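Rotation project, supervised by the postdoc (A.L.). Task for the rotation student: set up a whole-complex structure prediction and record inputs and outputs verbatim in this book. Inputs entered:
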Amino acid sequence: MTPALEINGLTKRFGEKLAVDAIDLRVPQGSFYGLVGQNGAGKTTTLSMAVGLLRPDGGTARIFGADVWSAPDEAKALVGVLPDGLAMPERLTGREVLTFLGLLRGMPRDEVLRRADELLDVLELSGADGTLVIEYSTGMRKKIGLATALLHAPRLLVLDEPFEAVDPVSAATIKTILRGFVRGGGSIVLSSHVMALVEQLCDHVAVVDAGRVAAAGTLDEVRGSRSLEDTFVALVGGEDGGIKELSWLSH
Ligand SMILES: Nc1ncnc2c1ncn2[C@@H]1O[C@H](COP(=O)(O)OP(=O)(O)OP(=O)(O)O)[C@@H](O)[C@H]1O
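Outputs recorded:
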C-alpha cells in the first residue's frame, strides 16, 4: 500500500549547519506516527520539508504518492498541517479564520460554515465566538490551528508539537479528536518531546538525532522491553554519570 508519507534522503543545510542529513521515513497508511528528538535534532525542519513549507537541498517527499514539490496541489489537498509557531490572522475570530481559510481553499461556503461550526463545538471554542485570535491563550491557538488543519478533511495530519503548552483538559480534547481521526482511516505524524504522550498515542515512532533517524519502526520494535524514555536516552546520549549537578544548589 502507498505510504501516507514517504520521505527519501531529505536534506537541509543552514549555512555551516547540516540540520537534516538525508532522512528517510515511511509512514504507513492508518498509522499514528510519533517523531521524537532532542531540541535542535531536526524535527521541525524535516516536517516543514515533508509538507512543502521549506524547500529541501535534496531528497523527496511524497504524500500518498504525490510529490510535494512536483505535484504540490495534489499533495497539499491530502494533508492538514499544524506548523510550529503557526502565524494566524490575529484580528479575526476563530470562526472567521476557518471561514476565510475554507473559502481560500475553494470549498463551498455552506460546507465551510457547517464544518467551522462543528470544529468550534468539538474543540470547545464555541464559547469564545466573539474573541479575536490575538486574545486567544496558547492552548486555544493550538486548537484553532488544529481546526484549520482538519477543515478540508485531509487524509494525513502533520502536527508539529500539537501538545506544547496545552493544559491537560485541552490536551484530552485534542487526543480524542486525533484518535477519532485515525479510527476513521486517517494517518497522523506528530512531533513531541513528551515520551509518555507518544507511548500513549502512537503506534509507530522515529527517534531523530542530529538530523538523522537513529531508530524507527513500531513502538514495540523501537522500545523493546524498555520504556520509550529509556530507549530515547540510550539512543541520543545522556550516558549515566554524564549529567552534571550544580553543587552550589545543595544546602
Ligand atoms: N531558519 C534557520 N536558520 C538557521 N538554522 C536553523 C533554522 N531552522 C533550524 N535551524 C537549525 O537547524 C537545527 C534543527 O532545528 P529544528 O528546529 O528542525 O529542530 P527540532 O528538532 O524541531 O528542535 P526543537 O525540539 O527544539 O523544536 C537546529 O540546529 C537549528 O538551530
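Student's summary: The chain has a mean pLDDT of 93.
Supervisor addendum: Residues 14, 17, 19, 37, 39-45 surround adenosine-5'-triphosphate (CB under 6 Å).
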